[in-house]
Amino acid sequence: MIAHCKKELPYEACGLLSGKNGVAETIWKMKNVERSPVSFAMDTTQLQQTLKQIQQNKEALTGIYHSHPTGIAYPSSRDIEYAHYPEAAYIIISLANQKPVVKGFRIINRKVIPLMIQLLHD
Ligand SMILES: [Zn+2]
C-alpha cells in the first residue's frame, strides 16, 4: 500500500482493501483518473469491476486508501464529501514527511471518526 503510494508520486494514489472480519487481506490498486497531487477519483468502471471481484472472492470491502503526497493524514473536506462507503475504513497515507504516516477513519454522514488500525504488511 505504501509502496503503491510512493510509486504514484507526485500524484495521489488510491486503492481498495478487501477481506473478512475487518481484516484486509487483498489490496486492489486503483487508477487515480484525476492524476492530481491534491485529489483523487477512481474510474467508475474499474471500481464496479473491482467491487464485483471482491464479492466473487467472498470478501467484503474493508478499506479505501489514498495518499496525501504533501498533506497530513486526515481527510480533506473533499474526501469527506465524496465518502460514500460508511462500512469501509478510509485509510490515508501521508507522505509529507520522510516516514509515512498511516491513519484510518470512518466517515459517516460527513462525520469523521478516527479508527484504530494495525498494519500487518506495508
Ligand atoms: Zn485526501
UniProtKB/TrEMBL annotation:
Task: Give the top-rank taxon of the lineage listed in the UniProt record for this protein.
Answer: Bacteria
Q: Which InterPro entries match?
A: JAB_dom_prok, MPN, VirAsm_ModProt
User: A cellular component term (GO) from this record?
Assistant: proteasome complex
List, for all copies, the residue spans of the domain called MPN. Answer: 1-122
Keyword Mitochondrion present in the record's keywords: the answer is no
Keywords linked to the UniProt accession: Hydrolase, Metal-binding, Metalloprotease, Protease, Proteasome, Zinc
Pfam families xref list = Prok-JAB
What protein name is recorded for this chain? Answer: Proteasome lid subunit RPN8/RPN11
This chain's source organism reads Aeribacillus alveayuensis
